[in-house]
Structures are given as C-alpha cells and as structure tokens.
Amino acid sequence: MTAALILFVVMLFTGLPLYVNLGLCSFLYVFIENLPMEVVVQRITQSANSFTMIAAPFFILMGNLMNTSGVTRKMFNFANTIVGTVPGGMGHANIIGSALFAGMSGTAVADAGGLGNIEIQAMKDIGYDADFACAATAASSVLGPIIPPSLPMVILAVTAEASIGRLFVAGIVPGLLMTIAMCVLVAVYANRRHYPRNPRPTLHSLWVAFKEAFLALLAPVILFFGIYRGVVTPTEAAIIAAFYSLVIGLLAYRDLTWRDVPKVVLQTCETTGVVLSLVMTAGIFGYALSVAQIPQQMTNVLLAFAHNKVLLLIIVNLFLLFVGMFMEGTAAILILTPILIPAMMSAGVDQTQACMIMILNLMIGVVTPPVGVVLYVVSNVSGVSFERVMKATVPFLIPLGVVLILVTFVPAVSLWLPNLLFGAA
Question: Phi first, then psi: what are they for 258, rounded to 5°?
C-alpha cells in the first residue's frame, strides 16, 4: 500500500483529475497484492448502485434549472427589498439571498456562479468596494451545502450510512447562525466604510418582490415538509423538486424555454459524471485502504485521544480544515469519512453531529486558499484578481469559524432540531 499512497500524493500535483488518481492507485494496489481483478469492477459498480445517490443528479438539475430560469435574480431582489434599508443593506441582501438560494442549489459553486455576478455588480454599482462585494459573495456561498438540500450531505450520508433526513434538518440551525454571524460582520464593515442603504420600500414594492420570489421560495418548503412528514424520501423529494423547478421555469416565470432544457440537462450530466466518477473510484480506493487496514490504524491513533473528547475534536477540526485547504470537498468526504466518523462516534459524538462537523470544516475549505475553488469562481465572474478576493475573504472566516466551534462543542446546535422532529437517534 505504501507504493500506491506515494503515487497518490505525487499525482495530486500533476493536474490529473482526482478520480483518475484514485482509480490508478487502487488498481496498482490490487495488482501488487495479486488480488482478483474482478474486485475492481465489483467495487466500482457497488459504489454507484445506490438508490440514495439518485438524489444527487436531481439536486444538481434543480440548481441548474433555477439558475437558468432567472430565479437567482428574483431571490436577490426579494432579499434586497427586505433588508436594503439598513446600513450595508445590499451586503446583507447578498448573505440572505445566498441563504435563500441555498435551499435550491445545494452546492457552494452553484451559489457563487449563479448569484455571484448579479450580487457583485449590483453592489459595485451603488458604491461598494469590489473586493468586499466579492468576499461577501464567496463567504455566503458556503451556505449552499449547509442549508438543505445539500449535495455534499447526500454523498456523506451514503458514505457514512447516515440518515439524509436527519442531516438535512441538522444543517438548518448552523446555516442560520452562519447567516446571522456574517450579517454582523457586514454591519461592522458598513458602519466603518459608510456603505449606502436603499430607500425604505413601499408596501407595493414589498408585495411585488415577494410575489416574484414566492414560487421559488416554495421549493425548499416542499422539500422540508415532504421529508419531515415522511411523505417522500429525500431521493423522491429531489425528483419532485427538480420537476417543480422545470414547471415554474417554463410556465410561471417563463424565463426558461424548451430550447434551454437540453443545455441544462447536459450541464447536469457533466457535473453528475464528475461526482459519480469520484464516488465510484473512491469506492475501490476505500476497499484498498480497508484491505491494507489503513482506516483501522488511523482510527486507533485517533482513539488514543478518545479519553479526552475535546482534544480529539480539536485534532479532527484542525485536520479537516487543513485538508479542506487543498482537497475538493466531495473527494475528502469519500476518502476520510470511513476514518473520521467512526473515530468521533467512538469518543461519544453523535453520528449526525460528527457529519455536521465534517461538512462545515470542508465547506469552509472552499473559501480558504490556496485551493479555495469558490474564490476562483468569484474572481472569474467579477474580474477582480484572485489575490484581492482572497485577502478580502479572510475576515469572513471568523464568523464561519465561530459557528464551527459552536457546532463542535455544543451538540444541541446541530442535534436539537433533528431530535425534535425525528426523535433522538
């Protein structure tokens, strides 16, 4: 296994897609250990053969449909109408708009790419600094995978054999706390830099903004109550939500045309292909690690700190933050879940809380240099240099980190709502 792991580390710096790296290293280990080659096909097929994973492409499709049908603009306008009158109002609208859109996109990149250009340009037009607008957009995009639905949560639930419903609900309170914490930081900047506020909206303008966004706002409501009431499974909810997005885009808002649908489906297939490639190759990579007893050995190392739960959680958080700085979140979930989740559970951490700790750490990583993918996306859509975006985003890591600490050391933050709705695990 040593040769395969060395090859894996070396290939991380070659620019090859990660699923190619995972597949080649796993195949090398199987060949060196003279294991049956059939196991490669079996493990890859087994990893993809999951009813729960069907939710992933439909959540991706829903986000793409919402982006194409102009829902992002309506969401931002609605948020801006509500909070635009307070100091730094459009900055608050940026954060709240991302929180609303998080109930549809499920990924940080979709949030940054969909809302980013609209939010940044609107803020720049009325006098906000370009780097601050980019930083608020990048940091708030973290809400996408935290507030349900969430593509990373689906993948984590499948990998950890956890309840998707509990994970979805567990993300609501941390997501709202992140929203509030970032709005506090925006208020500090607004007072310090004297950012403008919008005129007080009339009842008519409030009604118009709400009416335009109403059908879009129903999407996360349908998802939440459908799953909570047990009417549908999370997978079925994803299918319904994607169909709902198609209907309102074509018939209600009419910003989506039948000509757009093939392009949206193609985009969804491309993204889904990458995700499934990672899932399948990570399946055989996980098998190779398991045969070599790497997870067991690393778990034993972590369990040496299990007598001190606080110390173990600090080590896990620091490790995940470090990994998130260099590795894409989905890949990290697939590789590290079999190691870290059991270790935290052995120390007395609830499975749902352990999963939330992992998700929050890795999602903060998408806005942390040097490989913060969202920073590159925001830099690209705004035309602001990566260095400026990175520097301006650093202060936003403080409120995100505060919520991470709360989730880590105050179990009720992530467990209160799922325990209330579904009962204690």
Answer: -60, -25
